[in-house]
Amino acid sequence: MSGTQTAIITYLGTPIFGICLSIALFLLGQWLFKITKGFFLFQPLFVGMVLGIFVLWLLAKTFGVNVTWFYTNAYKPGGDLIFWFLNPATIAFAIPLYKRNDIVKRFWVEILLSLIVGLGISLVIIYYVSKFIGLDKNGIASMLPQAATTAIAMPISGAIGGTPAVTAMACILNAVIIYALASWLIKIFHLTEPIGQGLGLGTAGHTVGSAKAIQLSSVAGAMAAIAVVIISIVVDIVVPIFANFMGIVK
């Protein structure tokens, strides 16, 4: 190990660096999102992801070390702690589900069937589009779980032979796109019912889509949260079976 690498581990290889960098970039994203009145490209998660990659690359080049090495030794100790909070944050979506369980009880068949059918269609489309653009098995496996929220999709991706980091990027990009196009998609598909709006935004846009659904109505927000929970469970069951059936899993 070179003297530069030793110095990086000594001064930056603690959880503090990764935590502070993550929080700072997210707060910057929030500020940009606010002053641009909700411009979709400044969605805090998207800003944090893009700037985070750029900052890590820039620092690695500045210190003259490999980017992967810098990420693993300087950022990851703190980044993993931030990532840990994704799991309880995801579980917290059960709260609005519990509060609006009256809707779930009334429409549980429609909700479950629509999510399963929608997931089945999306898996087929993702698979064949990935094949068409020339992705290998690892690439396809990384794309398939993106219907679930990031905390659920990443472990599934790793289990079927994908790359969790690529899956996380796909989930965030997908959510930002849905957030940007939400109003247009609702208008095009004539989604006037809050239940349909919430299920669509929660399924396609995950937590970011749920934030958009909350802006529409309380019912849409609750249904988006319900969709995030249920679709994650369905993805956890269906995606490995689909991947195995299509010969993706080694």
From TrEMBL:
Q: Where in the cell is it found?
A: Membrane
Topology in the lipid bilayer: Multi-pass membrane protein
Q: Name one Pfam family in it.
A: LrgB
Give me the segments passing through the membrane: 6-28, 40-61, 81-98, 107-129, 165-186, 219-243
Please classify the protein's predominant subcellular localization into one broad category: membrane
Q: Which UniProt keywords apply?
A: Membrane, Transmembrane, Transmembrane helix
Q: Which PANTHER family match?
A: PLASTIDAL GLYCOLATE_GLYCERATE TRANSLOCATOR 1, CHLOROPLASTIC, PUTATIVE SEROTONIN TRANSPORTER
Name of the molecule in the record: Antiholin
> Which organism is the protein's source?
Lentilactobacillus fungorum
Which lineage is the organism of this entry classified under, starting from the top rank? Bacteria, Bacillati, Bacillota, Bacilli, Lactobacillales
